[in-house]
């Protein structure tokens, strides 16, 4: 699913923000939404801050598996603390991050293809790979949310 569509899905999930299901996740729907948006916003901002001439792709087996199969084991990988919501997510906090994500997604469209971010575990991602990563990561959390909402 394209990031633009995922942002629409996130918006549609705002009424469920407080829903929890401890059998699926320790975190609420709102936590997963906010976490996903923090990753999206940070990554899109990162693309604007790097020098494309510094992009040095390296092969990584983990990166290959993730990008080609989208495998993210649930509960096995701990995100860096800066991507954890600081407080209990509210409709307002998620909406603010959602609007920022929409703006940033527009702003990266005309960046050079070698604009990049450095993922803490998987290395450098160029613009296209960054967008793929964001789609896979967001999809991972949207699947968790779907399971939370199944009750």
UniProtKB/TrEMBL annotation:
InterPro entries on file: DinB/YfiT-like
Protein name as it appears in the record: DinB family protein
